[in-house]
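Dear colleagues,

As part of the handover before I leave the project, I'm documenting each prediction I ran so the next person doesn't have to rerun anything. This entry is a single chain, and its sequence is reproduced below.
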Amino acid sequence: MTDLFFYIFATLTLGCAFGVVFSRNPVNAAMFLIMTFLGMASHFVLLEAYFLAVIQILVYAGAVVVLFLFIIMLLDVGEEKRHRVKPLTWVASLVGFALLILGVVSITSSDNIKAASDTLPEAAGASLKNFGYELFTTYQLPMQVTGFLLLIAMIGVIVLSKKVKTD
């Protein structure tokens, strides 16, 4: 049953990632990006890494994509004229795709992937209690400064994107 969910979420993630790349509308691309992040979070849930799944949704799908949408609204990106694709673009695309295929083939044919390990080492920061304690004691000031800077940036984007009516 887990394999079925893996294939469903992988299809969702890849489909939305292609939607991000090939979407002509930047707002639609941002929505596809949210769905891609949700697909990745579902993979973390399948791996029983619930903390990473929640962080993926909160930080990336929540904050980063909202920041992208604010920037899109600030720049007022509209539909642009269609332009002819240059031959150099096609050549670069084919070379990039060939390198991608070469990388995938070389990774999957490696002996390191096929050799299974009997025991896995414990992941760094596996205990959330220790992670949270360090985050809010040792790194309390950087956390507060980062939150304050994000608040200032969000207010700045709202103020800059507000259009003033002239009578």
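The two ends are 64 Å apart (CA to CA). The mean pLDDT is 80.

All the best with the project,
I.
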